[in-house]
Amino acid sequence: MADVQNPLDTPDAFNFFTVDGLRSPGLALLTSGGNREDEFVHQQSPMLAGAYTVFRGQKNSSVTYQIQLWTTEHFEAWKAFVEALKAGRKKRPPKVWRLADQRVAHNDILTVSVGNIGAQMKIGPTKFAYEVTFIENRKRKPWGGPAKPPKNKWEERVVRQEAENNALREQLAAAKKAAE
Questions:
Q1: Are residues 124 and 47 in the same domain?
Q2: Tell me: the pLDDT tens digits for 95-110?
Q3: Do residues 128 and 121 touch, judged by C-beta distance below 8 A?
Q4: Is the pLDDT reported for residue 44 higher than 60?
Q5: Bigger pLDDT: 17 or 47?
Q6: Where does this protein have coiled-coil stretches (predicted)?
Q7: What average pLDDT score do residues 65-94 get?
Q8: What b/e readout covers 123-140, taking b as 16+ CB neighbours within 10 angstroms?
Q9: HEC assignment per residue over 1-68
Q10: What single string gives the DSSP state of each residue in 56-99?
Q11: Which domain range does residue 102 map to?
Q12: One domain for residues 35 and 115
């Protein structure tokens, strides 16, 4: 887990985020997302067999920021920031950014792709905002491992039958090739 700072000691560290070292301009408010949600499947068996729950894994998170701008410098920085995001979004596959944000660090949201860049909103007389949504992009972790040897006579029969079926498939393929 990332080292999370105390917002009372360092309040300015919670006013921005960075993607690949590129700092968000103005004030970046976390408006939604950033939570880590588990996925479960609940299944009810018929009659008196009962029910069971299967843990399927963790869902990918999304994080939405409202980036507030109110000075000329903020708008210049926004222009460069959004151009970098758009360039990464146009790539195939889309660019995966390394996100650094103290507000979501405790949930280990580390790599993201750009999900949405919203339109400009006027939120005050001289204050404007844009919404940017990032979608988490985690590497898949394979489950399982190498095949294990059979444990009982039934598993041994299945392995023997599979070997016999494979041998018959090879004979059939050779016969078809010879017939051509």
A1: yes
A2: 899 998 888 888 888 8
A3: yes
A4: yes
A5: 17
A6: 151-178
A7: 92
A8: eeeeebbbbbbbebbeee
A9: CCCCCCCCCCHHHHCCCEECCEECCCEEEEEEECCCCEEEEEEECCCCCCEEEEEEEECCCEEEEEEE
A10: EEEPPPEEEEEEEE-SHHHHHHHHHHHHHHHHHHHSSSPPPEEE
A11: 11-136
A12: yes
Q: How far apart are CA 38 and CA 34, in angstroms?
A: 13
Residue at 130 is within a domain: yes
CA distance linking residue 180 with residue 173, whole number of Å: 11
- Strands 22-23 and 111-117, sheet pairing: unpaired
Can you tell me the distance from the alpha carbon of 57 to that of 143, in angstroms, rounded to the nearest whole number? 11
The structural domain count of the chain equals 2
Owner of token pair 């151009």: 83
Residues 116 and 61 in one domain: yes
Percent of residues, the chain, with pLDDT higher than 90? 38
Whether residue 126 sits in one domain with residue 74 = yes
The string of pLDDT tens digits covering residues 138-163 is 877 666 667 778 788 888 888 899 99
User: Six-digit token pair at 60?
Assistant: 């990918």
